Amino acid sequence: MTMRFDLWDLASCMLMVVLAAASEAPAAESGESGSKAQPKIPVILDTDIGDDIDDTWALALALKSPELELKMVVSDTGDTTYRAKIIAKMLETAKRTDVPIGVGIPEPARSRRQEKWVADYDLNCYPGKVHKDGVAAMIDLIMRSNERLTLICIGPLPNIQAALEREPKIAERVRFVGMHGSVRRGYNGSPEVSKEWNVVANPKAAQKVFTAAWPMSITPLDTCGLVRLKGEKYRKVAECEDPVTRAVIENYRIWLEAGKGKPGQKIEASSVLFDTVAVYLSFSTELVNIERLPIRVTDDGFTRIDPAGKPIDCAVSWKDLAAFEDLLVERLTGKR
Prior knowledge:
With 336 residues, this protein is an alpha/beta fold.
């Protein structure tokens, strides 16, 4: 049998090839290569923002991490209304007032070193939702979710203790990621373990959290206690014009001046950015070494390796600290 292949057939074939290529172009241009984009990780951030400045950096990182879908931010420990005001103003700055805020359990006030930044801010004017009972709002969000949420905790844990006591079933629906403890190294890289603040501030709450049924990952001082941006890395962030990053640096200056700093002093490095590592662990462990260790919280606030403790994924050392610093700068500035 002889096949007839004339010019009309040739033209038709060429047209089909062009149309097929055109239909594939959008996927190639979007970088998807025909595969679906990875779904975002839904997270709740529980924070004692307004105490140490690292929480402010961590909130900015969470807002600028495309892997994450920020579902709620809850203020924790001390003057939780003051903390909620900082959260609200940061979210407004980021144009993310779709994110609801929960006001955590109030306690006697401690440091308010960023109060100058929110001195004239009215929490009642926040365009989004503010839940006066942040614990109840967090429980409701977790129990209504059709997918497992990640709870990022970067402060002491009274809110989370209360949530577990009110509704123990949340532990079945949540993955916990926290900045807590000291496993083999203490503050400033010391070979002597420390009573880390987020644990020793409320050991009973930490004991409740560290024995709950959820899967847990933590960055203890062993890793998070080594993170500072210095020199050119800090300069890139300090000079960035992005509104959220500018808010971070403005808060940093206020925080320093409210401590022992002097107005207008030259700043060449960040403080230790403990909490940023917990945000990172919520979406990646590529740059850290993880060990699953049995951890027990003692009554006096240590996190001890103990065979009777709960198995917890601990970021005990860095594979590449410099690469994490670069990632932090890239996320905050939008530049490599």
